[in-house]
Amino acid sequence: MTIGNLMRLLSDGEIHSGEQLGEALGISRAAVWKQLKKLETAGVEVSAVKGRGYQLAQPLTPLDGARIVSHLPAEARRRLARLLVEDTLPSSNDYLRQRFSQGAGHGEVCLVEQQSAGRGRRGRAWLTPWGQSLMLSIGWRFDSGVAALEGLSLAIGVVVSRVLERYGARPQLKWPNDILLATPEGALAKLAGILVEVTGDAAGPCEVVLGVGMNLFLPESARDAIGQPVAVLADACPGVDRNALAAEVVAGLLEMLDTFETEGFAAWQAEWNRRHAYAGHSVDVLVGNDQSIAVAGEVDSNGNLWVSENGTERPLAGGEISVRGRP
Q: What fold does the segment set 65-274 form as a domain?
């Protein structure tokens, strides 16, 4: 029995007795209680209703591969080699990188309910409660070298932003890998992160695994633990169907990947700049341990961010550079 089995039973938000859960799962009531405690440590709030049973504080929609595929348009299904949905993984990006090492990976999509070793840019951890985010990775093989992939992470940000805008959200983009959204208090905070990992020949064929992690729901306890403003899609767009959202993001990314090698980032440049969170604003530029203050300009057709420092303009080319808005 896995936490996923228990979550699927509780996902309707109704009250379920320990006896009912035990019978459905084939375990004892004591074992059910232990699994419920594991849920709490996984960041899922479970309420005990005296004399009746247990229910989730927030109803959740488990990922469903068949439902996601049913939402995909025909072109996306043609591009999709395989859709994998996992309850838990150390990292969905690592999983697809292993698939490439086994001769698969291209056109494959992996979605996961919870990651134990998920990471963002610069090795930062990306941890979210079970079933309360959208975490997915896509593998793609490019015939050209790494240079043809300039600006790919920015194009991903545009694709995801387009989807969110159809739901009524107003995302903004932070160079080079973040999608921001206003919190209910009005602060601009991180909603989603993007991680692109490339292996292969710098001048020839290469394999790319792109990862997207987005906060859909987040209990107050988890927000407090983060210790800084965090954006959650449910605050701006309550009632979003998690599987339909996953399908729209997957379809958009597969379409972009299919054409990026020939079109490059130039096809996405104007859209990225329209959503640029800090254009014309002062930002901190961090390179290793060095920090400077600059005014952010626009991104160019290669995905470089131009900044002005003491009247001198220069491009930032990603890598280990971070840019953050100044208060």
A: BirA Bifunctional Protein; domain 2 (3.30.930)
